[in-house]
Amino acid sequence: MTAAENVEEAPPRLPAVLVVVVVDDPAEDLTPTLTSVSAQAEVPMGAVVVDVTADSVVDEAAVRALVPEAVVRRAPGASWAEAVNAVLTRPERLPFMLVCRGGVRLAEDAIAHLVSEALASNAGVLGPKLVDREQPDHLRSVGLGSDKFAFPVSAVEVGELDQEQHDAVVDVFAVDTRCVLIRWDLLVAIGGIDPAIAADGDDIDLGWRSLLAGARVLVVPDAVAGVGPEPVPDRRSRLRHQVRIMLSGYGAFRLARVLPQAAIVWLVDLLAALITFRFDRCRDLLASWTANLRHLGGIRRRRRQVRQYRQVGDGEVREYQLAGSAQFRQWLAARVAFTEGSSAGRVARRRIDALSDAAVRNVLLAVVAVGVVYVFGSRHLLAGSIPAIGSLANFDVVARDGLGEWWSGWWRSGLGTDVPVPAGHAVLGAMGVVLLGAEGVLRVVLVLGAIPLGAWGMARTLAPMESRRASMVAAVVYLALPVGYNSLATGRWSALVAYAAAPWLLGQLARASASGSFAGRSTLLTATLGLGSVAAIAALFAPMVVLLVGVMAVGLVAGSVVAGNLTGMGRVLVATVGATALAFGLHLPGALALFRDGGQWAPLGASGGTEPGTISLTALLRFDTGPVVATVLVWGLFVAAAYPLVLGRGARLVWAIRAWFVAMAGWGLAWAAQWGALPVALPSTEFALVLAAVGLAMAVGIGAAVFEVDLLRHNFGWRQLLVVLAGAGLVCGLFPAVAASFDGRWSMPRGDYDDLFAAVFPEPADSGSYRVLWLGDDSVMPARGWPLRATESFALTDDGAPDILNQLVAPLDADTRAVRDAVRDATAGRSNRLGRQLAETGVRYVVVVQRIAPAPFAEQEVPLSDATGDGLSEQLDLQRIEGVNQALIFYENTSWVPSRAAVPPASDRVPEPADAQAVLVEESGANRFTGVVEAGPEVHVATPVDLDWQLTVDGEVAARGDGLGWENRFAPLNRGDAVLTYRTPLWKRLALIGQVLAWVAVMALLVNRRRARERT
Amino acid sequence: MSAFRGPALILIPALLVGGAVYDADNRPEPDPVEVPADVGLATVAPVDASSSVWYCPAAALTDEDQVLVVNLAEQDRQGTVTYYPAPPEFGEGGDTAVVAQIEIPAGTELDLVPADQLPGGVAVSAVVEIEGGGVLVERSASRTELGATDRRPCATEASAAWYFPVGATVSDPGVSAATEQLVLLNPFPDPAVVDITFDTTNGSRDPGRYEGLVVAGRSARLLEVNEEVANVERASGFVRARSGRLIIDRVLSYDGAVERQGLSVSAGATRPALDLYLPGGTLGEGATTSLFIMNPDPELPAEIDIDVIAGEVEAVEPFERTVPPDGVIEVVIASEESADPIGEEAGRVLDGVRTFSLVVRSLNNVPVVAERRDLVFASSTAAPGLTAVMASPVTASDWRTVVASLDPAASALIVQNPLFDSIVTLTITPTEADVRSFEIAPGSRLRVPFTDLGVGPVRVEASGPVVVERQIVGLSSRSSSLAVPAIGSIQEP
Q: Could you read off the pLDDT of B377-433 as tens digits, one per residue?
């Protein structure tokens, strides 16, 4: 070896780096930063300290003392981007620039590692591994990802420890700009840092443009830098910058594809923010676009600049981007992980980890399996249509009539009433408007969505038990019980709503109790608000759901007594009372209808009679109430539900007993109805059985938690055999639902009355406005009404077939009661001119419904009693229309007078049909009718007397009187264009506005309390 | 959290199982609907009813026939009468309906002559609509040439099925000719389509012209049965509507050429029943009583028990018969002193029995219809005539009728107590006489002659369910019909 050879070969000299330290936070101690800079060895450096603080806090002497070669520049108020760009203009250029903020502490040889890698990899932008400067074993950043919408995704979870899991040089989309090495020529080429994006997106912007320039962006873990806490992002800025980055970074073709997608993502985000009352986020989302649209000139300049240095296409950059919407995946991952408030990184990591967990895999598999079964069982309903049977009426008019009728203040229930229209009409109407009239879609979502919504609620109810298996089992059992499908098959809208709402109600009651696993989940006030809100929302569509809350509470208390543990029951009762009051209050002024006309249950949906039924208790226990047959296999679920009673301990045992008693409260309620022991008719048997289903499902779910926790205490023995038995019972209990899915429509009829009614009922514009009187057993009636006799009820609809807005009724007032009395008289042999008695009310058709759907779609017939049927056939002025359908008996009233008609003046007798001329047949709004009227005849309007009805003819108000003692009569003086309208009283409008504000306030309060809890 | 497992493990199964067992054994039945449907008899609507209607299909076949509207209420009544021409089925259409307004002061009778409204010799049907209840409407048919008068209530219900066990179209020389007519009234707006068949002494007859017969809405038709089913001793009619409902009267007369003469104008039966009652049977020289039992079931035979109740005279053992599906049997109930029984089957001879009631019971749950035909021959010392009384399928505790001024001694009300274990107390409230009270022994009957009642409306109130028959006997004619129960007092047997 020669002397020359003995000389150790000197390492190649690294190119020089200009270290630019931007001091933008006066609170940051600059000394450690400069000390770490001066300690960098092996790299020739220059240093520039740029003080952008308003007070120019940097002491130049102190800087020189640490870094003798440092130059201090002052640019008060400038952004870090402007500071860096200013440095770029210096005549002396070095190969690399290391930009870091005050407070950053570089590890030894950090810069050397960065530069070495830059040379080795020919990278243009490199970032070190950022760690917490106080706790260096805590990672802060190891590069950033981004989706196509410039949404940043960190690979590091908050608080993640450095265990060398990120110690590999990787290509990333961007690096944290708190410390970044940039090739000087690259930075010059791309025009420096964008001064418009000084923070909250500057990293993504730098990385994106660097990639477009053909440079690589790397993270070099061997280079370590310590940083302080993550700066609090400005959401508005970040959103604005995301849009700017997209608009300026993409080429025209790619931008045309991405922009619509971005608009959808933003829109969904906006709607979600609206629904959850995060109005500040709404503002920021909107501002993110409007701000950029205001600065389109700047955008265009940037695009020109990009075109000049672009070296690669958008497709190549796309390869570095995450697929889909990273924001949405982050949100979804948080739900799958059953946690709330997780950071993006934590959620992403947890999601990845969770998938490797067998339990989670099983949960997901179960969810998928259940979803497949449900979709399979609903396939014909989804592909075709959901038949409009029973109270599952069509939604065709909600967009047109729902909101308008609610706002007008006149409810066309019965013969019409000034009782406030239920808020549910407004909600349905608003939904229809939002969907631009796609009421069919709305119907599918609400009807078929009720069952999965209930299952979801069931899973959420048991979430505090922190057992995925328990939540899954409870949800699956709830789905497997026939009550939901029987509600579909028999057209029970109220029962479906109850099915969707009951688990959420039970969950809120459990949280209110704050006992066992539910302790600490919610304050009493929040739980009460939540309970009341759910009840109020459900009551929009099925008012009697509010009463279920009380029945549930009774079940919980009874179970607690039996279990010998009343913990939390006081809170439950307080929450029940409070929630009921809240739900009642949110439905004011409409809820006052309960007290009208002597107090009635009809507005709650109790239209049937309270006669004893025919379903035995055994059938109720098996949920065997409809065509979806619950075979003996359902008893298997009882075995599974008994398991936690035998083996459960502590809170699990207590809650299992409580769940059982909730179930028994439901069975008890249904049984009492079958015995005719209730003072009010339930909407259907399934309505009560929903409670039994939710209690039974909860008990079975708790059994799964018992399996996970309590069984482990014991050695192998009889207990394990019980598990096998319970498991077998569970599996058996699922079979009926699976079997029921094979027909693809959950035993719903294949057709409905819609087409038939459309063919039979004329348009009011053709022959005059009219009403239809519906008679039938409450179980087959297509519209809600009032009790007639035993289980028979009657209903009235305007101008043809009923729809979803006819599923709630006002109290039976004196005028509508007169219709009932006339029908009773006629069917009791005390009258033979029912048509004449109904003529003044505008009833043109009397339809007796005997099946839930027309023949041949429904075979089971529920005929009227002989008395009612024979009595109708004895009427001399009801002409039976043959050949309509076997399921209906159809009569036309030969004495019919249109409900808006010109009649002889000053007559105190019901006009003859020949003397009545239909008028005001055009409906130009809710409770607004137009047409030409003549002078001379009076205008008969078959609505109860009300001073707020007004008829104007060519702008002149016609005198109003009480015709025939109950209806409105107008005497126009001249011939002309007439408008009949209901003038809504101001107090009513104010009350409706107040109602809306009350809803908004309650929901906002609930959301804010929940968010506040999440933050703590 | 601590909890007790034991109580739940005991209580939950106990409640569920115990509840299921209790439910199976004690399930309540739904309350029966209070309003009876399709009574099967004319009924009087309550006074506070909104309206009431009476149908008289054979209101007038001659100029002498009348419709009698009796106001039983304490308030005046107004109403309308719609007169429909009832032309022969295959004859000319006839006039359109005529509507007339009527007023009936409280407690009075208004006699209407339908022929005055629709002159021209065509038969007339009438629909009487009254604003309110408490009105009884009867028709009075007269045949001067026969010397016969028949008075009985009109109908208050339409039906899709009508049964006429009694009927005849015999026209052989040497016997009195019988004429049978059916008057079909459809007062409803929609048409009715009917099929009319007959069970005769010569077998069943299904006239082609009576198959799918259309009776237009708000119209009436007269059918000459003799033209389609000629010369049979018995022509029992079955009328079944394929669609719609009607009211049908049968007009039966014997011309008196040989012994038999008389006129009967009555509605048919609409409601077969398992138990049927006929209060007023009489035996005597020169008279014959036949019981016609019709089985409308097309498939099942009816096993019938006929109970002849002779009051306190020794009981007569009931006898049984079988009625074939869609068939009719005639049981002649005769005394040894009566004329030779004619008809298909001789009944039991009742020694010493002069008056009796009949109860017809179906033993195998096949409902039947029964009608009693009384023929008093011209040679008899009693007033001759023909009466045909449809058995009552119901009992009631409140009956209304009108006492007409014919032979008050021979005319009477016959009240049957169908209960074999209870005495029924009777209160009869005539218009022009004092209230009378009676008792009827279990299973027995009571005859109250008109001499005790005066002329005018009569109310019969009983402490239990009874059946009331009115027998009007004149100098040369007789007429029997059931009284009219008040709708709220009807009791199912």
A: 877 777 788 899 999 999 999 999 998 766 666 788 999 998 888 888 888 888 766
Of the three residues B238, B267, B296, the one that is the final residue of a domain is B267
Q: Distance between CA atoms of A315 and A328, rounded to whole angstroms? A: 22
CATH code of B452's domain: 2.60.290.11
Same domain assignment for residues B163 and B206: yes
Contact B53 A664 (CB under 8 A): no
pLDDT tens, residue by residue, A877-906: 999 998 899 999 999 999 999 999 999 887
pTM of the predicted structure, to 2 decimals? 0.79
Kindly state whether residues B278 and B236 are assigned to the same domain: no
pLDDT at A715 exceeding the cut of 80: no
Q: How many domains does chain B have?
A: 3
Q: Does A487 or A708 have the greater pLDDT score?
A: A487
What is residue A830's DSSP assignment? S
Q: Do B45 and A830 touch (CB under 8 A)?
A: yes
Q: Which domain holds residue B446?
A: 395-493
Residue B348 exposed, middle or buried by CB count within 10 Å (0-12, 13-18, 19+): middle
Are B60 and B183 within one domain? yes
Contact B138, B55 (CB under 8 A): no
Q: Are residues B163 and B282 in the same domain?
A: no
- Look at residues B393, B417, B434 and tell me which one is the last residue of a structural domain: B393
My answer on whether B242 and B365 are in the same domain is no
- Residues 44-83 (B) with a CB less than 8 A from some CB of A: 45-46, 48-53
Claim to verify: residue B331 and residue B371 sit in the same structural domain? yes
Task: Decide if B4 and A563 are in contact by the 8 Å CB cutoff.
Answer: yes
Residue type, A219: V
This complex has an ipTM of 0.87
Residues in chain A: 1016
Residue A590 to chain B, least CA–CA distance (Å): 34
In a domain, B422, yes or no: yes
The answer to whether residue B135 is domain-embedded is: yes
CB contact under 8 A, B127 and A876: yes
Integer Cα distance of A612 and A448 in angstroms: 31
The answer as to whether B14 is a domain residue is no
Judged by a CB distance cut-off of 8 A, whether residue A567 touches chain B is yes
Rounded to a whole number of angstroms, the distance from the CA of B279 to the nearest CA of chain A is: 26
Residue-by-residue DSSP string for A696-750: HHHHHHHHHHHHHHTGGGS-SSHHHHHHHHHHHHHHHHHHHHHHHGGGSSTT--S
